[in-house]
Amino acid sequence: MSAFEKPQIIAHIQKGLNYTVFDCKWVPCSAKFVTMGNFARGTGVIQLYEIQHGDLKLLREIEKAKPIKCGTFGATSLQQRYLATGDFAGNLHIWNLEAPEIPVYSVKGHKEIINTIDGVGGLGIGEGAPEIVTGSRDGTVKVWDPRQKDDPVANMEPVQGENKRDCWTVAFGNAYNQEERVVCAGYDNGDIKLFDLRNMSLRWETNIKNGVCSLEFDRKDISMNKLVATSLEGKFHVFDMRTQHPTKGFASVSEK
C-alpha cells in the first residue's frame, strides 16, 4: 500500500493552547466549537471558538473553580444549545454559553471525578425525554433528567462488597421510541455493561480484556444496530446488537 492509498488526515487549522484539553465538541448547527480542560493553576476552563476565513477566533473564555473533564450538547434543544459538563469534583453542570456566570442546572452527581458524559433526546436526535448520563471514578453510572432537580432518574452502582471499577465511557442508544432506551458503560478493567432503562435492569455484559476507552452506537435514534468499543493496546471491537444469544450475548469482530 503506497502512502497515498492510506487514509489521509490533513490539518485544517492548528492552534496552541495554554491549558490541558480534555474534551472538545462542535456547537450544533454552527461553525463554532467548545474546548474544555484545566489550567496549570488547577481551575477549569471552557473556550468557545468560531472558524472564520480559515482561522480560529476565540469568542469567549470561561474560567471555573474545578477542572472540566467532559461535555455534551446531546440533551439540549437546537434553540438553546446548552452545554452539559462533568468536572473533577463530581459536579454535573449545564451552561448557557451566552450567560455562563451561573449554571442553569447544577448537581453534585458523584463522589469523585466525572470521566464521561453523554446526552440524548435533544437536538432532534432520539425519541423520549432529554436525559444525560454520567460515568465516574466512583464506579457509578447515573442518568439525569435536567427537568428534575438533585436526584438521578437511574443509578447503576456496584453491589455492596463488589469492587468499584473506574467508569471511562458511557453512551446512549436504542432511543427509537418514547419507551425504549439503553445506556452502555465501559470500565478500566475491560468490562462493558448494557443497562436497559425501560426495565431498569442489566441486559448484557462482557469483558474485552483491556480498559474500554470509548463506546459509540452507530446511531442513537434507531433500534440498536452496531456498537463499537475501543480499548487500550489499540484494539477495537464491533458488536452486532440486533440479535442477542441467550448465553453468548452479541456477535462481534475485533481488529488491532
Briefly summarize what is shown.
The chain is mainly beta and 256 residues long. 0% of the residues lie in helices and 50% in strands. It has no helices and 20 strands.
List the strand order in the largest sheet.
1-2-3-4
CATH topology: Methylamine Dehydrogenase, Chain H
Largest sheet: 4 strands, antiparallel
Give the radius of gyration: 19 Å
> What's the domain count?
1
CATH architecture: 7 Propeller
Instruction: Look at the structure and give the mean pLDDT.
Output: 94
Share of residues in helices: under 10%
Strand content: over 45%
Task: Kindly provide the name of the CATH class.
Answer: Mainly Beta
Tally of separate helices: 0
Query: Which structural category fits the helices and strands?
Result: mainly beta
Keywords: Repeat, WD repeat
WD repeats: 132-145
Protein name: WD repeat domain 92
Organism: Neovison vison (American mink)
Which key features would you list for this structure?
single chain, 256 residues, mainly beta, Methylamine Dehydrogenase, Chain H, four-stranded antiparallel beta sheet, 20 strands, repeat, WD repeat domain 92, WD repeat, WD40_rpt
Question: Secondary-structure blueprint of this entry?
Answer:
Elements: E1 20-26, E2 32-38, E3 44-52, E4 55-64, E5 68-72, E6 83-87, E7 91-95, E8 105-108, E9 114-120, E10 131-136, E11 141-144, E12 154-156, E13 167-173, E14 182-187, E15 191-196, E16 201-207, E17 212-217, E18 226-231, E19 236-245, E20 249-255
Antiparallel strand pairs: 1-2, 2-3, 3-4, 5-6, 6-7, 7-8, 9-10, 10-11, 11-12, 13-14, 14-15, 15-16, 17-18, 18-19, 19-20
